[in-house]
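Narrative summary of target 7.
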Amino acid sequence: MSMARVEGLRIGDRYDIEQLMYKYCKAADMADVDTQADLFHEDCRVRYSGTAWIEGREALRASLRNAFTRYLQTSHAVTNITIEFQDTDYATAESLVTAWHRDAEGKEWTLHGRYIDSWKKDRHGWKMQTREILAAGAVNRDESSLNMIQRVAVSDER
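Modeled conformation, tokenized:
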């Protein structure tokens, strides 16, 4: 493989973004609000479910704090990460997420879905600009508030 091809892959930037995605999941599972929120730009936009976007890092921090009071335990796994670079300091990423939750009453539910992210690099490194969760489905949870992945329907007609 030529050196130009290796440089074009932006392996260092890909590694950095992937590690930050893993750090997000670990922070979620450790109920580490500050680490999780600090992975986002000040002017971030996040939508976990429903139609409303969470606007700004401090609003996100408050939302995360609220979520952590509802769940005693979580386990997030992120896989199948794809990253595309639009320019030197901007990238989009998509990944699969499986997120298990247990509340104070022992009720459990699991989300299967995708993180749809945009990333922006500044003097502090890569941070998320936007994150949206699209659900493939959920176990033991009402899916009506989730933003579902829109699959192409395959018909029986040939």
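Residues 11-29 form the longest helix (19 residues).
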